[in-house]
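Backbone-to-sequence.
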């Protein structure tokens, strides 16, 4: 069984696309291409692992529909979100004489999706592309909404563009190939969306957490659908992240700083989970989130092996310095998304992210680790 969620960007009449979710939805891809882009060259960008396990079969099925297909492999991992790797992809496309009659398929996790999407946004001033997320994190979050980009020495995702895909095919069969750490990685992002927007979905995910961790595809498909429905609605209201879309950055002010300090050795989900724990504590200390609400979040994260013990490994001075790179910073002040309840973000004067002094962050950190 599969589900389809539609994203429609009000400001752009052409920016409406389907998000197919379920086991076997990739089987729809060749016919969808034939129907919508019958004369295009197809460029499949993937990492070496996904190319070996999944992409070759998909490429073969597309070629059977008489498409010219160019496959481009990039190294797995966050380090591939770089100028050098992006340039290598572009050079290959130029060598293959890829023109504007080209459609890109980003097949992989968030790294592949972000990089391939940015190539699509900039190559010959814009090509259509399709997201085929193969990780849980990419399915619940990064494949939807049109954020693309690469990292720099100064921080994560600091170069990029908003460029909406033409379709998303989230085939839950791919989840069976993932290590357990990658399931946790995606569950954190889903829980984040539920914490900020949907208390009922948060309860559903918590109630079914053991099944989700055991890679129960039926449960994971429901979690993906719920998360994507939330994100699609937020993106439709605020595509360019000028307001409400910032709420999806809950946990990310600290999370991105953790990733940066670890040189991206800490997985995104684990880093965001640390961010959620600390940023939820800040909200509790400021009197926005109840003690009970914070304890529920703390207990859920503990089931994912994210506890204050993990935060002890961080140097708070280095962490605060790294938050200065956050894109929500305004007039030199770092802003945070803060919860007022499970399923609800604190708003003040129509603002979704709020200045929190470093001293408050430091106190929350010390309280959490028992210093």
């Amino acid at each position: 069984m599969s589900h389809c969620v539609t994203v429609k960007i009000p400001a752009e009449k052409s920016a409406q696309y389907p998000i197919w979710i379920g086991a076997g939805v990739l089987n729809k891809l060749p016919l969808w291409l034939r129907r919508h882009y019958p004369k295009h060259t197809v460029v499949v960008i993937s990492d070496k692992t996904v190319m070996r396990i999944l992409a070759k079969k998909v490429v073969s099925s597309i070629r059977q529909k008489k498409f010219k297909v160019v496959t481009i492999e990039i190294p797995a991992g966050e380090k591939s979100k770089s100028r050098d790797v992006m340039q290598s992809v572009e050079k290959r496309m130029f060598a293959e004489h890829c023109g504007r009659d080209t459609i890109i398929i980003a097949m992989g996790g968030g790294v592949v999706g972000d990089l391939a999407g940015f190539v699509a946004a900039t190559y010959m001033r814009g090509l259509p592309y399709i997201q085929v997320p193969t990780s849980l994190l990419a399915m619940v979050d990064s494949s939807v909404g049109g954020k693309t980009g690469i990292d720099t020495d100064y921080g994560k995702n600091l170069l990029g563009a908003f460029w909406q895909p033409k379709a998303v095919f989230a085939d839950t069969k791919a989840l069976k190939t993932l290590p357990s750490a990658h399931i946790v990685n995606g569950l954190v992002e889903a829980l984040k969306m539920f914490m900020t927007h949907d208390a009922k979905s948060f309860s559903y995910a918590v109630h079914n957490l053991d099944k989700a961790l055991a890679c129960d595809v039926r449960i994971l498909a429901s979690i993906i659908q719920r998360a994507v429905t939330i994100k699609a609605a937020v993106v439709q209201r605020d595509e360019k992240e000028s307001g409400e879309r910032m709420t999806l950055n809950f946990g990310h002010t600290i999370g991105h700083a953790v990733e940066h300090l670890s040189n991206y050795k800490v997985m995104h989900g684990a880093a965001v989970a640390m961010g959620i724990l600390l940023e939820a504590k800040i909200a509790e200390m400021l009197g926005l989130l109840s003690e009970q609400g914070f304890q529920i979040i703390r207990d859920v994260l503990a089931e994912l092996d994210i506890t204050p013990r993990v935060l002890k490994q961080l140097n708070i001075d280095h962490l605060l310095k790294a938050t200065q790179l956050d894109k929500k910073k305004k007039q030199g002040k770092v802003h945070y998304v803060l919860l007022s309840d499970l399923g609800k973000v604190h708003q003040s004067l129509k603002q979704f992210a709020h200045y929190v002094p470093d001293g408050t962050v430091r106190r929350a950190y010390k309280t959490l680790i028992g210093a």
